[in-house]
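Input/output pair, single chain:
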Amino acid sequence: MIGPRDVGKSRSSVQYREEDRKRVACVKAWSNSSSKRLFSQILKNINHAAPRGRRHDLRDHLAGCLEPFGIELLLVDNAENLQREALVDLKQLYEESGVPIILIGGQDLDSSLQNFDLLTCFPTLFEFDRLDYEDFQKTLRTIEMDLLALPQVSNLAEGTLFEILLISTEARNYQATRGAPERAETVGLLPAAARS
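Output:
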């Protein structure tokens, strides 16, 4: 899963892990992470009794414990920080265990996989795009109604509050301006239906 900074990739992966701790493991790769460091992090994340050892032993421990521990998905955030050996070992871990591995990161992840000739090993990359006006409003309404379930309506998808969210999250394909609606219309701030 690829996307620019600050669009919610890390928050989404942590939230996904929190919702299903028994079946999902989620770790964050630190700068220049080796296989040994990554596998040790994963073993700690799933509460394995032996999270230390040699690289090969750690991969064997991990491959052998994912199914018995009930882990059905492995999320690796900041995957662009992984060394080539770690990416190759993740590929082998998938082949040995059958547990899907989702790599999460910025554009550098795609470049790293291509440079290491591993792009075909992790072929399903999802890029977060900016949302258009209507989709952004729908998303905010869904968050407001279904996820937050506030006792009082916050109107996230309307007025000044919506404009602030639109600008601060960069969920727009246009420049926003303050001022009269006709000025906003000229730069694409208003939805298509409002422009006609």
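DSSP finds nine helices and three strands in the chain. The CA atoms of residues 130 and 172 lie 6 Å apart.
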